[in-house]
Amino acid sequence: MERWNLTPRPEHLASMVDLLGKAGFLDEAFELANRLPVDHPAHAWETLLSACRIHGNYELSDLVSEKTLHRQSCDAGICMLQSNIYAARGMWKDAAHIREKVKQSQLTEELGSSWIDN
């Protein structure tokens, strides 16, 4: 980046989190996501949570959930993704608790899109 005199913006870091997560480099993606400003939208965390589900890294998904489910900007997509992870692990009560929380708070899922796909 220095070669071209560029300063990475949060959007660049979020894209790299997505790429690293899809490639299975979850620890590296987690480290990079932690460099994002606190007030940055949770999309990078959501893509990392999705990558944790895909790659079966439930230990890291718990850490990511801690960072996302307690944010003010948490949306229904993140909550439902975590609910699905709990269901995949057989943690039915936790999955139901999150779904009920979404229902009570009347959160709605945003439709997503990706600029970079497999």
Number of DSSP helices? 6
Estimate the strand proportion: under 5%
> Which class best fits the helix and strand makeup?
mainly alpha
What is the number of E strands? Answer: 0
Helix proportion of residues, in percent? Answer: 55-70%
Radius of gyration: 15 Å
Q: Please state the oligomeric state of the protein chains shown.
A: single chain
Q: Can you write the helix and strand succession as a string?
A: HHHHHH
Mean pLDDT: 83
N/C terminus separation: 25 Å
- Sheet with the most strands, sense and barrel status: none
* Shape call: globular
Low-pLDDT runs:
none
Question: Mind explaining what this structure looks like?
Answer:
It holds the Pfam family E_motif. GO terms for molecular function: RNA binding. One of its GO terms (biological process) is RNA modification. The chain has 118 residues and is mainly alpha-helical. 62% of the residues lie in helices and 0% in strands. It is built from 6 helices and no strands. The protein has helices at 10-22, 26-33, 43-55, 58-69, 76-88, 92-105. α1 packs antiparallel against α2, α1 packs parallel to α3 (43-55) and α2 packs antiparallel against α3 (43-55). The longest helix is centred in the C-terminal third of the chain and has 14 residues, at 92-105. It is globular, with a radius of gyration of 15 Å. The mean pLDDT is 83.
